Each structure stands twice: as structure tokens, then as C-alpha cells.
Amino acid sequence: MKNTNNSNTKKIFHTLIGTVSLLLGIIGILLPVLPTTPFILFSAWCYFRGSSRFHDWLINHPYLGPIVAEYGDGEGMTKESKIKAIFFTWTAVILTAVFILDSLFMQVIIVLIAVIGTIVLIRIKTRKK
Description:
The protein is 77% helix and 3% strand. The protein has helices spanning 4-30, 37-50, 52-60, 65-72, 79-99, 104-123; strands at residues 77-78, 126-127. Helix 5 packs antiparallel against helix 6.
């Protein structure tokens, strides 16, 4: 006999984490310090495991859905999308590190996050047009 309580707990957990990730991704649209794409993709992954209703909403969203579709079909991202994502990430990181953050520790942290994000983007398969 399956433990449905454990299954429901996992679904709630995935839905909650997916929602937090989605909120961070949306904040990333407004605050360029946070990357949008990885958070949106992680939200889709979490919603797939936690809530078909939220997953369907996300993949059919007019703005956020194409982010998931481009990556989720297994063909990767276009070269142009990768270049834009890397450019805007590094522009935001440099501006933030130079003009907003006073702490060397925080400057190093956001640079490390940007390095990791750049590596992830580079490693994603490049889609042919």
C-alpha cells in the first residue's frame, strides 16, 4: 500500500519551492541581479512534480512559457538567447558590484553566482534555427 500522505507532502513541497523559484525569477525580470531563466526553468521542473495546474499555467503563460518551451523541448537555447542572457547577467552584475554593493564579500558572491550561471548557459545545447 502506497503512502499517499508522503506523496502529498512531496507535491506540496515541490509546489511551494516552485512558487518561491517563480517569484525569484519574476523579481529577476525587474532586478537584473537575479537571473530569470534558471528560476523559471526550476519552477517548471518543480511544478511538473507538484502541481499539473501550476505547470500548465506556467508553460502556457505568454511571457514565461516560451522560456520553458525553448529549453524544455530538448533542443536547447538559441545562440542569440544565450548571448542576451549572458550579456544582461554580466551587465547587471558589474553595475551592481561597482555602484550598489560596498561589501567585497557580496561582490565576490554575485560574481561567483554569475560565473556559475554563465557556465550553465554555455553548457546548454545550442538550438539550430
